[in-house]
Amino acid sequence: MWKLLWIGLFGAAIMLGGCAKQASDKAQSYQNDGYLGYSNSNPNLLNRSGTLYEKDIQFMGQLLEPVKGIRKTEVGFNGDDANVTLRINRGLSDADRERIRAEAQSILQSNFPRYDVHVKVRS
Q: N or C: which end of the chain has fewer CB within 10 A?
């Protein structure tokens, strides 16, 4: 009987002793740098070309300006794929459409080897 009483008192003392510790945990917030706690020690971030999209779109438009028959150039990116849609002048033959597409494909793929360039032609 006394043995159970001592075990019970000892267990209660241990449980109360655990509650007596002062909580020193302080809430920490992340810096407002967009990394949410990740350090910038690894320069090889996952999106290797995301910061270049606007400049690449402008440069693609400049490269395709000399190609005759193109009215408008639309560029979209999906990872390493550059999807280019060329709006061409109406009334061009199928041979001219294919020539414009092949020329644009060649120009863009040679100037942007980091992308897989896909060119579509629309009237």
A: N
Domains identified in the chain, total number: 1
Q: Please choose, from the candidates 83, 76, 86, 84, the residue with its C-alpha nearest in 3D space to the C-alpha of residue 54.
A: 76
Residue 1 lies in a domain: no
Confirm whether pTM is higher than 0.90.
no
| Radius of gyration over every alpha carbon of the chain, rounded to an integer in angstroms | 32
If 0-12 CB within 10 Å is exposed, 13-18 middle and 19+ buried, where does residue 80 land?
exposed
Q: Cα separation of 63 and 82, whole Å?
A: 15
Strand duo 81-88 + 70-78: pairing: antiparallel
Residue 34 has pLDDT above 60, yes or no: no
